[in-house]
């Protein structure tokens, strides 16, 4: 199991409050000791101590009204992970292509030789062409999110196992076939749906959890994609469950 630790995420209320306090302190806030900065540092150290393979950074919540702010913050937090993460690479996590690129550039800016390769979270079939060529100068591994540019309606947002497998093959063929990635550089995210509301949309459709598991099976059984990884945000499964979330996460894994 490869652990992508996600405590440096602005959707977590306590982390968001600490990030806001550091932001309010002005430029260089992450370099000056203080309660908020020390809390963020403690989260980095704790995740390293617990065996994280990647330290995820997501600051998208701060960019909803100011996209430039999320780019600046991503650069700062990527450098912070590089300084204090004890060699654990960053997972640069954003729904914005510009923020992803800013984080990737920051990881390698004035970096010593032998830096661990970061993870980009995530690339999609319709964003991959802008990023895959960057591998030549800025090496990275990638999470391929299995979605395309379908509409967001109830019919458009549902993908069959065949469709998800085809999306994975599209990303794989481009990354490995044209840009020199190795299968082990690629993680596929087939999405985790909350168990509390996982009901089929109609009688002829399976539930989302069934679809997720069967997509994993299909990808792992495809000999052409031997060696790829699967990435799952397992805690999504327990969203809105009233109790025993840790046990359910363990069962899901």
Short description, anyone?
With 253 residues, this protein is an alpha/beta fold. It has helices at 13-24, 35-49, 67-84, 97-108, 128-131, 161-179, 208-221, 245-252, and strands at 4-9, 54-58, 90-93, 119-123, 141-145, 186-189, 229-230. The protein is built from eight helices and seven strands.
The fraction of residues assigned to DSSP E strands is 5-15%
Classify the secondary structure makeup into a structural class. Answer: alpha/beta
With strands numbered from the N-terminus, the spatial order across the biggest sheet is: 1-2-3-4-5-6-7
Return residue spans where pLDDT drops below 50 for at least 5 consecutive residues.
Answer: 151-156
The span between the termini is 10 Å
Mean of residue pLDDT values? 93
The rough form would be described as globular
| Share of helical residues | 40-55%
* Helical run tally: 8
> What is the number of strand segments?
7
- Provide the gyration radius in Å: 19 Å
């Amino acid at each position: 199991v490869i652990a992508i630790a996600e405590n440096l995420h602005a959707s977590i209320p306590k982390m968001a409050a600490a990030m806001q306090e550091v932001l309010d302190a002005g430029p260089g806030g992450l370099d000056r000791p203080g309660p908020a900065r020390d809390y963020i540092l403690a989260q980095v150290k704790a995740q390293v101590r617990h065996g994280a393979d990647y330290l995820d950074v997501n600051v998208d919540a701060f960019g909803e009204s100011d996209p430039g702010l999320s780019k600046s913050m991503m650069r700062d937090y990527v450098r912070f992970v590089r300084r204090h993460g004890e060699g654990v690479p960053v997972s640069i996590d954003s729904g914005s292509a510009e923020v992803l690129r800013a984080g990737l550039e920051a990881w390698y800016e004035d970096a010593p030789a032998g830096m661990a390769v970061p993870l980009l979270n995530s690339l999609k079939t319709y964003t991959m062409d802008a990023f895959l060529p960057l591998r030549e100068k800025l090496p990275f591994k990638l999470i391929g999110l299995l979605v395309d540019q379908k509409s967001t309606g109830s019919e458009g947002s549902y993908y069959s196992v065949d469709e998800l497998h085809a999306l994975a093959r599209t990303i794989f063929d481009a990354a490995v076939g044209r840009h020199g990635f190795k299968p082990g550089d690629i993680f596929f995210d087939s999405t985790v749906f909350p168990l509390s509301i996982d009901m089929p949309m109609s009688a002829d459709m399976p539930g989302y959890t069934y679809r997720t598991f069967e997509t994993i099976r299909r990808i792992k059984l495809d000999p052409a994609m031997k060696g790829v990884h699967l990435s799952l945000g397992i805690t999504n499964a327990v969203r809105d469950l009233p109790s025993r979330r840790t046990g359910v996460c363990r069962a899901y894994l």
